[in-house]
Amino acid sequence: MSMWRKFKNSLSPVREPIAAHAPTQRALRRTPTRRMQAGVDRVAGRLSFLPFSKAVVESEKGEPPVLVRELPPLERPPTNSSAMYTNEQRAPPPKLGLFDKVTRAAGSNYVFVGMLAIVAAWVVLGFVQGTTDTWQILMQNASSIQVYVTDILLLRQQSNGMKSLLTTLAEMQSRNQSVDRLIRRIPDCEWMETHKSPAQRLLSGSGRPVEEEQEETLLIEIHQMSRLKYVWNRTCRAVAVGLGSLWAFAFYWVGIFFWIGIGPIFQFSDTWQLYVNTATAVALTFTSVFLQNIQQQQEDNLEKSLEYATKIDAEVEEHLRELAEDFKPNPIFEIPPPKATRSERFIDYFADIMGSGIGVTLSLVVVAIWLSVGHLLEFDDNWWLIIGTFTGLVGFIDGFILRNVYAREEVRVNQEFRNIAAEDSKIFDLLNLPQPDPPVEPPSTMSTRVSRAAGDFSGLAATSIGSVVLVFILLGIASIMKWSETGQLLCNTPTMIIEGFLLLILIQAHNVANEERGREFSGILKRRLLLNHYVLSLQQI
C-alpha cells in the first residue's frame, strides 16, 4: 500500500472485512460395522442399476463427475496426527480492554438504577433548596456530560456488538460450505425417502413439530432466570415499546409546542429557556442510559441464542464427517466491507474517533481546559454553561452519527442473515427436504410506518452532515453574542430538543432490530433442528 493511500485511509478509514471459520468437528474414526457396510453396498448396488445419467454424482469443484461405482476412497486422517480425532475448540474471545470493560459495565442494570437514584436525589435537592437557576444549570451540565459520555460508549458498544455478530454469521456460513460438500459425498442423501407423509415434514428428533421444540428451547433461558430478572426484562421491554411508539413521539412534541406557547408569558427570558433545557436534560439522561441498558440486554440474549444454534450446527457437521470420513478443515469465510460514499466514510471516521480512547482523551483535555479557566470567569453561570454547551453540541452530532452507523450496520447484518437462509435453502433442496415455514411478519400499522419513516430519515448520511452544519451555525451565533448566557442557551436549547427526540428514534430502531433478530433466529433454529434430525436418521441406515 502506498504512503498516500495509508495517509488517506488514516483520515478516512476503510472498513475491514470480517473473516472467520467455524471450528472443525473431528469425528472419531471407527471401523465400519457390518450393518453400515451393508447399507453402503445396498445403496451403491441400487444406484448401479439406475440409468447411466442418474448414476453420476457431483464431485469436488473443478473435477469431472464420476460414477458411483468409481467413487474415490474416502479421506482418512493421518495416523500421526492425534488432533484429527478430536473436535477443534473455538478460539476464546479476545480479552476485553479497559475501555470495553467500562462499556459493558455501563450497560448493566446497576448503572441504570444508579443513574435513576442520582436523578431522584437531584429532584429532592430542588424541593429542599428551591428550584433556582443554579439548580437547573447543575442538572443541564451534568446531563450534557453524562449523555456525551454515554454516546461515546454507545458507539463503542455498537461497534463491538456488530463485529461479534458478523463473526458468528461468518462462522455459520463457513460451516454451511462444509455441510454442502459433505452431503454430496454421502450417496444415501440423494435417494433416501425423506418424508412418508406431509404431516411428518416438520417433525424433529423427539417426534414433535420443530416449532414446538424451538419454542421450548427459547423458554429454557427464561426458566433459568430469577423471577426478579424476568420481571425486570419484561418491564424494560414494555417501556422500550412505549418510548419507541408514535404516541411517545407525539407526546414529546406536544410538550415542546406547549413550552413555545408559554414563551410570551415569560417574555422569552433565560429562565424560560432553562425550563425546557432542564426538562429535556432529565429526558436525555433517562433515555440514553435506558438505551444502553436494553441494547446490552439484546446483545447478551442474541449471543446465547446464536450459541445454541451454533452447537446444533456443530453436531450436524460432526455426524456428517462421521458418515463421510472427511476431515478437511472448514474454509475461511469472509464478509466484505460495505461500499461507502465519501460522506459515509467521514461519518465512520468521526465514529471511530469518538468511539475509541482518542475521543475520551480529547474529552479529558477539554474538561481540563474548562477547569483551568474557571477562576478567570469567577466560576459564574457562563462558566458553568461552557462545558454543557461543548458536550451538548458534540453529543448532538454523536446522536446522528450513531443513528447512521446503526442503520447501515443493520442493512449489512440483515443481508448476511438472508445469505444464510439462501444457503440453507440450497442444502434443503439438495436433500429434497421441505423447509420449515418462515416466521410470519406481523402487518405494520400506521403508527409503525410513521415511526420507521422518522427513523429512516434520521439515519441518512445527509442528516448527519446537516447536524454538523447546524452546530457551526449555532457556534457563529454564540460568538456574535460574545458567548453570553443567552448565546449559550441558544446553542443548548435546539440541540437538546432535537437530541431528545433522536434518542426516542434510536429506541424505536432498537425495537425494530430486536423483532427482526427474533424472526431471523427462529428461522435459523428451525432449519438446524430439522437438518439435525435428518442427519441422525442417515446414521440409522
UniProtKB/TrEMBL annotation:
Keyword Membrane in record: yes
Ranges annotated as spanning the membrane: 110-128, 238-260, 272-291, 349-371, 383-402, 457-481, 487-507
Database matches in InterPro entries: Iron_permease_Fet4
GO biological process: transmembrane transport
Comp. bias (Polar residues): 79-89
Domain of life: Eukaryota
Positions of the UniProt region annotated as Disordered: 69-90
UniProt-recorded name of the protein: Putative low affinity iron protein
Natural source organism: Coleophoma cylindrospora
